[in-house]
Amino acid sequence: MNFAFRLLLLVWVLGYLFASCGPILNGHPILGALALFGGVVLFVPWVLGIVVLAFLIQATNPPRR
Question: Within 10 Å of residue 23's Cβ, how many Cβ atoms?
Answer without folding.
Answer: 19
